[in-house]
Amino acid sequence: MLDVIGALVFGAINMAFLVVLIGLAAIRPASKFLAFAVAGTWISLIVTIAALGGFGAGIAGPFPTPVIAFLIVVIAGTAAWLAWPAFRRAVFSIPLVALVGINGVRVAGVFFLILHAQGRLAAPFSTSAGWGDIIAGAVAIPVAALMTWKGTAPRWLLGSWNALGILDLITAIALGALSAPGTPFQVFTEAPGTNAMGTLPWVIIPAILVPLFLLTHLAIAVRLRARYTEEVRTNQPSSGLPREAAVGKIA
């Protein structure tokens, strides 16, 4: 029953991400269609591989298989950011409040705690990832509400929350890798390890959601840095929008 609920929740979260990252971007309809197609293909591929047992322990030798999917998304996103100006403009066109608000769904980190309570996921990975996501998501909600109400939020507040969110993700990635059974770098050996993260629907977290959350945090950090740089240059409050991304004002 928990797996069914998890599948419904993470399916909804995936849809929310598509709406925010693609639907709200100021890009041409054809580009949106292509982006939706690529995202849909990746999601279908992950689900298919997981259904066939392709993310099981030992499939990729000593390397945790879900981490491979995670790295593919992160590397692809980083490469697109560095090499594709149109991609950067698209990211900058997404309202900052939307990038912050989407993190509110991370309260679903409660699933980590439930899996731990059921004996399906080991500590310290489960407890750290669970409580870290719950805190980051719970804080994102009032921060996004403040941005909606006031039109902005203090840069220190956004920066502090953003750093917290990044730290949570990096800690979860590290603990997950160090808890993966069958790897030479496994440090935390409490059974059952992290095997559940290679099965449906939980594999959606490391293979899709974690890299998207991480890239979202990095985009927010760049936006905040741009706003700070412009404020220093002009000595006036700034929208934080770099010159190359003058396609709309961020909150």
Describe this structure in words.
By secondary structure, the chain is mainly α. 67% of the residues lie in helices and 0% in strands. α1 (2-23) packs parallel to α9, α3 runs parallel beside α9 (204-234) and α7 packs antiparallel against α8. The longest helix has 31 residues, at 204-234.
How are the SSEs placed, and which strands pair?
Blueprint: H1 2-23, H2 29-51, H3 65-83, H4 85-93, H5 96-101, H6 110-117, H7 125-150, H8 155-178, H9 204-234
Q: Care to give the gist of this entry?
A:
67% of the residues lie in helices and 0% in strands. It is mainly α and 251 residues long.
Largest sheet: none
The amount of beta strand, in percent, is under 5%
Task: Indicate the structural class.
Answer: mainly alpha
What is the end-to-end distance? 40 Å
Poorly predicted residue ranges: 238-251
Q: Which geometry do the CA atoms define?
A: globular
Order of helices and strands: HHHHHHHHH
**DSSP strand count:** 0
Mean pLDDT across all amino acids: 86
Radius of gyration equals: 19 Å
In helices, the fraction of residues equals 55-70%
Total helices: the number is 9
List keywords for this structure.
251 residues, single chain, mainly alpha, 9 helices, disordered C terminus
